[in-house]
Amino acid sequence: MSLNLRSIRTTTTKQNQSPFHVLLQQIGEEAFAVFAFIVLSGVATIGEDRANSTVGSSSSNPYNTAGNVLVLAYMLVWMAFNREVIIRSVKRTPLLMILVVLCTLSVVWSVSPYVTARRLVPFYTSIIFALWLIERFDVVGAIKVMGRAYIWLLVASLLFVIFVPSIGIESGFDPIHNSSSEALAGSWAGVFSQKNALGWVASAAYTIYIWRFVYEPKQRIVHGATLLFIVFIAYKSRSTTTEISMLLSTCFMFVPWIEQLPNTRRTLLELLGLLVAFGLGLLLVMKAQDVAGAVGKDTSLTGRVPLWIVTWPSVELHPWLGYGFSAFWLTVNPEFMRIQAAVGWAPPHAHNAYLNLATDIGIPGALLGIFIVLHIIGRSIRLVRQRVPWATYVLAFCAVFAVANVAETRLFHSGDNFNVMVFFAAFVLANYVAEHQPVREAIDRHWRRAMFAPDPGAGAQPASALVPAVRTPVRGGAVAKRAAPRAAPLSAKFLPLDSRTPPAEDGDGRGGLRFRT
Question: How far is CA 174 from CA 52, 53, 301, in A?
Fold first, then answer.
């Protein structure tokens, strides 16, 4: 019988600790998780002079660098004692690892190898931190920790608006365009360098708490009050992208209900949704000027469309490998200087994550990034159909994040806490599928043998005799044998996966499955 050393080590450690020590460890881990999220959100830019733009500069904020180094140092120590977690996750997410390797190798051909190497550090930190979250918390617990971190950021932003308005409220001067903007004047930025960053945090917090509002009915009063606070902060940030993202997140909360409808009703609702989306798209094309004016924008999307047009020729110059990870938008790059002269302002990025990825690691790398996001969304849809509660949040966040990155650059961007959530979703889905797929494949093989290759000498068999006996996760980690259900899918009865809990061992030495109960 094989032994699971990690299981023995974890169990022994918990038995040797007093309840007080266990509680203290849990508080410490959650406090570190919140601290790491705050560091990765970029609040170390508090107090920077908004009148002086650092776009195109290769310099970095020393406080932000120090915070990332501190988080990364702890992560490296954790990795040294949890190598099996890293190896398992690398094997289960090959496409994501290929993207990481491609970003790393871009140091070789980068227009600024030093900047690429330095900006890869927070990128690695986001990946390792996502792995740490999976190891130290169950899926739902990790999502709650993320939500609490965002609420702390929003509360701090409100305090800065009240007590330090010179930092918390935009003055109206746009350092990127080097001009005054009435749209910016009075917008809340809070503890962030600009209002859109505050809006993104509000949108991420809204997705978490609208999901908790739906799936935690006993706490709906608290979650409802929290949602009102988040909506208020988002409104004061005056971010159109945030408003659209929050609306889409609300719509995705209806997906589980739609998926449980009969086929005819579900198909009709899906067709209705497609028609509404097509109608809105047609309205945007035919009445672009009126729609843009209604939301306080122009048809150029605040200069984004001309920027995309002049950036594409630069992608065509290096279509296969790009200019190096996070190295395109620097003054040392002649193409950046050309774009700046063409648009008349200094863009910090492409304002389109997919175009920005093409400038970093080429068109193949951008297509790989798009496929990874679509793969995450596809997996989450399948789990929503199997009634896995946390899959609804993963679907809502990743789908909204994918749409919002058409006008912003957050996806696979260096030092961005939203990438932690993308990596977290990829690892969690990979773990869940890896734990469930062996059981489902065993059932499929049995049914194929029973239906297409019956035993000639067995005679007629009752239907119950064709149902395989499978190991089923039960309370306390024990493994019981029972007949697999015929009607309801097996995965629909599984509870959220606890990444901290190792596979159980049964009497025949084969690893069973254990899930949080």
Answer: 9, 9, 16
**DSSP letters spanning 124-161:** HHHHHHHHHHHHHS-HHHHHHHHHHHHHHHHHHHHHHH
- 473 and 513 Cβ atoms separated by less than 8 Å: yes
Could you count the other beta carbons within 10 Å of the beta carbon of residue 452?
A: 7
Within a domain: 239: yes
Q: Which domain holds residue 517?
A: 468-517
| 205 and 326 housed in the same domain | yes
C-beta neighbour count of 485 within 10 angstroms: 13
Nearest to 503, CA basis, from 36, 84, 58: 84
Q: Which amino acid is at 288?
A: A
Closest by Cα among 159, 184, 156 to 170: 184
Instruction: Report pLDDT digits (tens) over 56-89.
Output: 555 566 777 777 788 888 888 888 888 888 888 8
CA neighbor of 245 nearest in space, from 278, 287, 202? 202
- The length of the chain in residues reads 517
Q: Which tens digit of pLDDT belongs to each residue from 368-398?
A: 999 999 999 999 999 998 889 999 999 999 9
Q: How far apart, in whole angstroms, are the C-alpha atoms of residue 327 and residue 314?
A: 13
Contacting residues for 447 by C-beta, under 8 A, at least 6 apart? 466, 468
Q: Are residues 343 and 399 located together in one domain of the fold?
A: yes
β-pair type (479-483, 469-473)? antiparallel
